[in-house]
Amino acid sequence: MENLLFIVLGLVLLIAGGNWLLKSAVALSLRLAIPKIVIGMTVVSFATSAPELIVSVKAALDGFPDLALGNVVGSNIANLGLVLAITVIMGSIDVRKSFYTTDWPVMMAASLLFCGFIYFDGQLQQYEGIVLVSLLFLFLVYLLRFQKPAVVDEMPEDDVPLPLYKIVFFLGIGGTALWGGSELLINGAVGMASTLGVSDRVIGITVVSVGTSVPELAASVIAVLKKEKAISLGNLIGSNIFNLLAVLGITSIITPITVMDQGLLSSDIFWMLGISFLILPLVFFPKGLRLGWRDGLVLLLFYVSFVYMTIK
Q1: What is the pLDDT of residue 151?
Q2: DSSP codes, the chain
Q3: Which parts of the chain span the membrane according to its record (predicted)?
Q4: pLDDT at residue 147, as a whole number
C-alpha cells in the first residue's frame, strides 16, 4: 500500500515541479530576450521532459539501471499507445507534413540508434551518451534553421514576464519538487517490484512510465473536452525523441547504464520500435494524413498486449 502511495505522491510532485520549472524557465528566457521560437523548442521541451530525466538519472545513480531504461522505453510506448491512442479515439487529429519529412524519421533513427547501442553489449556507455546528446543538438539546430513554422505554436499562452524573485522562487521550488518526487517514485517503484516479486524493469516499464506520461494524457483529454486542438502528434513524437536522446543520453553520460533484466533487450525495445513504426502506416491509411478512432483502437490494442506480455 505505502509503495503505491509513494508512487502517487512522487508523481504529483514530479508533475507540479515540472510545471513550476516550465513556468520559470519560460519567464527567464523571456527576460533574457531569447526568441520565442527557440524557447518553444529547447526550454519547453527540456522542462516537459524534466520528470523523466530526473527519474532516470536518479535511478541510474541509485543503482537501479532497469528503472531508468524501463522508464524511457515504457514512456515512448505509452506516449503512442496510450496518450495518442486515447486522444484520437476521442476525436480525430490532422497530421502535418513535417510528420513524415522530419518528426517520424528522426524518431525512428533515434530509436534504432539506441537499440543498436544497447542491444549488442547490454550497456549504454558514456561515449554513446555523448553521441545521443550531440544528435539532439544537431536536431534542434536543424529545426531552428529549416522548420521554423513547425515549432511556433509550442509556446504556452501565459507567457508573462515574471519579476526576478518569482522566477528564482519557481525555479527553486520546481527543482526541489522534481527531486523529492523522483526520490519517492523510485523508492515506491523498487519497493513495489520486490513486494510483487517482479523485476525493476516491469515496474519501470508499466507503472513508472505511465505515471510520467500522465501529464500529456491529461492535457490531451482536457483539450479534446474543451474542443481545443488536442496535443499534437508532433509534441508526442518530440517527447519520444527527447526521451531517447536527452534523457538516456544525459543519464549515460553521468553514469553508464547496464541492462539487468534481459527482457528489455529481448522484448521491450522491439515493442518500442514496433509501435514507433506502426504510426507511419496508420497516418496514411485509411485516410491520408489523419489519425481517427480506428487508428486509436489499433494503437491501444498494441499497448494493452504489450503490457499483458510484460507482466504475465
Answers
A1: 45
A2: -HHHHHHHHHHHHHHHHHHHHHHHHHHHHHHTT--HHHIIIIIHHHHHTHHHHHHHHHHHHTT-HHHHHHHHHHHHHHIIIIIIHHHHHHS-EE--THIIIIIHHHHHHHHHHHHHHHHHHSEE-HHHHHHHHHHHHHHHHHHHHH-HHHHGGGS-S--PPPPHHHHHHHHHHHHHHHHHHHHHHHHHHHHHHHHHT--HHHHIIIIIHHHHHHHHHHHHHHHHHTTSPPPPHHHHHHHHHHIIIIIIHHHHHHS-EE--STHIIIIIHHHHHHHHHHHHHHHHSSSTTEE-HHHHHHHHHHHHHHHHHHH-
A3: 37-55, 67-92, 104-120, 127-144, 164-190, 202-225, 237-257, 269-285, 291-311
A4: 63
Tell me the mean pLDDT in the region 199-223. Answer: 81
Tell me the pTM. 0.86
| Residue 141 near residue 37, CB atoms below 8 Å | no
Task: Answer for the pair 94, 234: CB distance below 8 angstroms, yes or no.
Answer: no
Grid cell listed for 192: 513495489
Q: pLDDT digits over 224-236, tens only?
A: 777 666 556 777 8
- Enter the C-alpha cell of residue 303: 499497448
CA-based nearest residue to 117, from 126, 108, 105: 126
In this predicted structure, the answer to whether residue 244 has a pLDDT above a threshold of 70 is yes
Residue 122 in contact with residue 257, Cβ under 8 Å? no
Cα–Cα distance measured from residue 153 to residue 155, given in angstroms and rounded to the nearest whole number: 5
Taking the C-alpha atoms of residue 196 and residue 92, their distance in angstroms, rounded to an integer, is 38
Burial class (CB in 10 A: 0-12, 13-18, 19+), 2: exposed
Q: Is the Cα dihedral 108, 268, 237, 244 positive or negative? A: negative
Output the pLDDT for position 72. Answer: 92
